[in-house]
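lol forgot to send this yesterday, sorry. struct tokens for the thing we talked abt
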């Protein structure tokens, strides 16, 4: 995969621009010389990296792996009914039309003795696991994990430790009338974590010299502590049943080049805006997709506030990504995006967008102009 400097992937879509870190020295004074987690002295190189994290965070950005960011829409494209894959040797595998590959090895997950020769059962099992590793919920969970890894006290390391209830809060799961998370949602989250660890994702793309690719699960490790009696059940079943109180999640280094294998900081990442505020009315459950116009309204209000100019340029694919539209059918997607943008223009969220006939090429750019701002006297 192509590597380079840290780059912004927000208001400028996929146009890679080095981010100036003029505020690093100011943020350095906020970084302690002793690490509160280890009690050890922090060297100047690490302190400056943490100052950069604070400076970028103050601008509203988090860091994500470049490969993951550039392929996440492909990785998390939901399975359709005819994507059943095939069981070969000891693994289920699916070669998808979007140039990604999914692979699940049932024996890595649990005891399959007695069923390993039942190809239909193994195929159904592979589809079930892979389905939980792609789609909206898994994409949202990975975004939350990257956010938590970005922030203190993790400071862009691959490992985070969090209470399952706190993770569910960040995922915006609905609570019951007593203010507790439902057992069904705990199980759903636990199973999604397992699927992200046991589903290998392969990507491949063309390069000037040929092609490049990567293969590996998005998560490489899961640990837990629980107050439940788990004497007679496996760690797999602990997660499957949603029993963990506290979980430790490790992002696979294949999908995390923000630090190198020795833990040293790199510039090899993308900067994206933090998760937008909740756009669903309270009480809505996860999985109900908000109106693209509502999502884009929140996005542009935030982006124009951060952008020094009154113009934002996005590729068509970046626009689709920030709108939350998962439909990859070009005609339907174009119609939905056009209707959403026309509504934003009518509501004066944006002044204009051009071209007004949206391009079909995912790499083509679209220019958005902010509405005129009024001063304190009310005069534009």
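and heres what i got for the seq, position by position
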């Amino acid at each position: 995969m192509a590597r380079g400097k840290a780059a912004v992937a927000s208001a400028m879509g996929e146009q890679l621009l080095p981010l100036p870190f003029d505020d690093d020295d100011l943020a350095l004074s906020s970084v302690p010389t002793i690490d509160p987690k280890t009690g050890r002295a922090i060297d100047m190189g690490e302190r400056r990296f943490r100052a950069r994290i604070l400076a970028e965070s103050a601008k509203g950005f988090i860091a994500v792996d470049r490969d993951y960011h550039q392929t996440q829409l492909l990785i998390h494209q939901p399975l359709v009914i005819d994507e059943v894959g095939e069981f070969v040797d000891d693994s289920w595998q699916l070669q998808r039309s979007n140039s990604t590959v999914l692979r699940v090895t049932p024996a890595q997950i649990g005891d399959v003795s007695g069923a390993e020769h039942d190809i239909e059962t193994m195929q159904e099992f592979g589809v079930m696991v892979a389905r939980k590793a792609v789609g909206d919920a898994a994409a949202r969970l990975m975004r939350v994990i990257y956010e938590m890894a970005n922030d203190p006290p993790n400071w862009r390391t691959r490992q985070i430790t969090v209470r399952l209830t706190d993770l569910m809060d960040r995922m915006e799961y609905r609570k019951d009338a007593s203010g507790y998370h439902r057992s069904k949602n705990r199980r759903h989250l636990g199973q999604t974590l397992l699927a992200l660890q046991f589903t290998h994702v392969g990507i491949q793309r063309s390069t000037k010299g040929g092609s490049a690719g990567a293969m590996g699960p998005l998560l490489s490790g899961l640990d837990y502590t629980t107050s439940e009696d788990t004497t007679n059940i496996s760690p797999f079943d602990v997660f499957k049943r949603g029993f963990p109180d506290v979980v430790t999640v490790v992002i696979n280094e294949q999908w995390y080049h923000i630090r190198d294998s020795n833990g040293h900081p790199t510039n090899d990442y993308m900067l994206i805006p933090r998760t937008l505020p909740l756009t669903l009315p309270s009480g809505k459950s996860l999985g109900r997709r908000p109106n693209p116009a509502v999502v884009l309204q929140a996005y542009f209000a935030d982006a124009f506030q951060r952008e020094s100019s009154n113009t934002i340029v996005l590729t068509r694919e970046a626009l689709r990504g920030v709108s939350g539209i998962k439909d990859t059918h070009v005609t339907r997607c174009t119609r939905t995006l056009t209707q959403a943008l026309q509504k934003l223009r009518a509501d004066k969220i944006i002044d204009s967008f051009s071209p007004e006939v949206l391009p079909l090429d995912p790499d083509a750019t679209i220019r958005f102009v902010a509405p005129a701002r009024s001063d304190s006297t009310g005069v534009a």
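The longest helix spans residues 330-346. anyway ping me if u want another try
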